[in-house]
Structure of Atypical chemokine receptor 4:
Amino acid sequence: MALGHNQSTDYYYEENEVNGTHDYSQYEMICVKEEVRRFAKAFLPAFFTIAFVIGLAGNSVVVAIYAYYKKQRTKTDVYILNLAVADLLLLFTLPFWAVSAVHGWVLGKMMCKVTSALYTVNFVSGMQFLACISMDRYLAVTKAPSQSRVGRPGWIICSCVWTAAVLLSIPQLVFNTVNDNARCIPIFPHHLGTSVKAAIQMLEICIGFVVPFLIMGVCYFITARILIKTPNIKKSRPLKVLLTVVVVFIVTQLPYNIVKFCQAIDIIYSLITDCSMSKRMDVAIQVTESIALFHSCLNPILYVFMGASFKSYITKVAKTYGHWRRQRQNVEEIPFDSEGPTEPTSSFSI
């Protein structure tokens, strides 16, 4: 989690342990980054507040609809539900990082480990569920409709996604701690070396971006070709949705992963030795990771509210709630001593 660091350092050595390679912590004293910290104190809390409010509203609606109203679910429905849960859990970590950006980490080492691990689990699983959705949309176009039902394979895939994300969060649980500057950061033992640190960074890039992006690109490209060749269907709306999903994914995720890749290369080859360049890297990682996080706010719009079926559920719920409010108002207007019968409130059923 780079956003809470107020600088580009993702990896530190233990105190009094220095090897022959260059790392940011060795020149932190001579590279004063007060302007970077001021930027983080102003930018991160404001951005996190906006993301938290928007994302909480959208993803809560998704979870409520799929959990309580939509009883017959396809694989895509299950993936979207899991995606919304992952986004919500990710958003719930943002207030902690917002406070950390202003006051430093004040919740202790255990909360540092848990919050960092939750961040990684839900960020990575969210990207993988996007890939699952694209695969299921591809199968829905190329296979029989019955094969899109949930069944046991759908739940197995969801379990595998969560398991892979949890495994990827183990380094945060093991190595994250609070340093002397009250920052929640990973501190690796000297014997692990720079190669292990860079490997963890590259693994996050591959599992959290490269693999989902390749799956989405291939599946949506084939799906678009099939839609174009299929006669007698309205093609404009599905194609626009596919294009929007891919473009938003690239715009939000690619800059952040490019910066992470540069960090991984710098860990190995110590390319950044200039203080001003280090400061620019600090700001870049904060801005690009914030943009990547905002994708969790856009998922309900991209994958749910664009769908006609889900919008019909929203309409039904709104009508049911409006009818319930009217019935309640009518009941409240009846005097307490009235013995007249009251009409029961209708229940929402699918």
Q: What stands out?
A: The beta strands are 12-13, 176-178, 184-188. The two ends are 42 Å apart (CA to CA).
